[in-house]
Amino acid sequence: MEITDMTLDDLEQMKDTLYSDYDNFWSYNILKQELENDKTKYIIARENNEIVGFAGILIIFDEANLNNIVVKKSCRGRGIGGELLETLIDLCSDLNLKTFTLEVNVENVPAIKLYEKFGFKNLGIRKKYYDNISDAYIMSKTDF
Ligand SMILES: CC(C)(COP(=O)(O)OP(=O)(O)OC[C@H]1O[C@@H](n2cnc3c(N)ncnc32)[C@H](O)[C@@H]1OP(=O)(O)O)[C@@H](O)C(=O)NCCC(=O)NCCS
Asked: What is the CATH number of domain 2-101?
């Protein structure tokens, strides 16, 4: 697997299959804005030249917030999400950031387990965070 910076060209390449191959990500238009924002950093995973996942953070001062991490539905459970998250953690370390924070739906067990595996700690609940309905855990990591 190869992990590189994600470009607008990568997003265009994924455009037609984004909604069928992935779920739980921000829309195409928002992803495009994310890639154009100079405060974000997005990475992409490829296997045999095929895009299999992407992830991105927003960096404000010395804090990173995880904005997206998504693995292609047919490729989950093979370590790709872990590799993407580890790459972003290494980036936080390289940039000397102090905290890496994220919000996750309290019902999203695979994602919560992934974050716990990489040392994120649950700081508390943000009520009705998603669509004013579902609660989110706020999780954070400070040791890079
Ligand atoms: C969350 C997600 C990115 C994980 O990616 P993945 O490539 O399947 O994860 P990995 O194979 O790297 O697994 C890493 C760890 O995550 C946890 N995990 C992954 N899938 C899991 C599952 N179905 N059930 C429980 N734990 C799971 C495990 O701790 C696993 O470590 P292990 O293999 O040593 O047990 C993927 O499920 C996904 O794209 N989900 C939809 C998008 C999403 O919900 N993103 C998070 C938004 S906050």
From this structure: 3.40.630.30
Specify the pTM.
0.97
Spell out the per-residue pLDDT of the chain, length 144, in tens: 999 999 999 999 999 999 999 987 789 999 999 999 999 999 999 999 999 999 999 999 999 999 999 999 999 999 999 999 999 999 999 999 999 999 999 999 999 999 999 999 999 999 998 888 999 999 999 998
Burial 54-63 (b: 16+ CB within 10 A, else e): bbbbbbeeeb
7 alpha carbon – ligand 1 mean position (Å) = 24
Angle at 109 between CA 55 and CA 133, to 5 degrees: 85
Tell me the CA–centroid distance for residue 79 and ligand 1, in Å: 8
Residue 9 is classified by DSSP as: H
Residue 9, amino acid? D
Query: Residue 97's CB: how many other CB atoms inside 10 A?
Result: 19
Does 81 sit in the ligand 1 pocket, CB within 6 Å? yes
Q: Which residues are tagged catalytic?
A: 103, 115
- Strand 99-105 vs strand 63-71: parallel, antiparallel, or unpaired? parallel
Rg of the chain, C-alpha, whole Å: 15
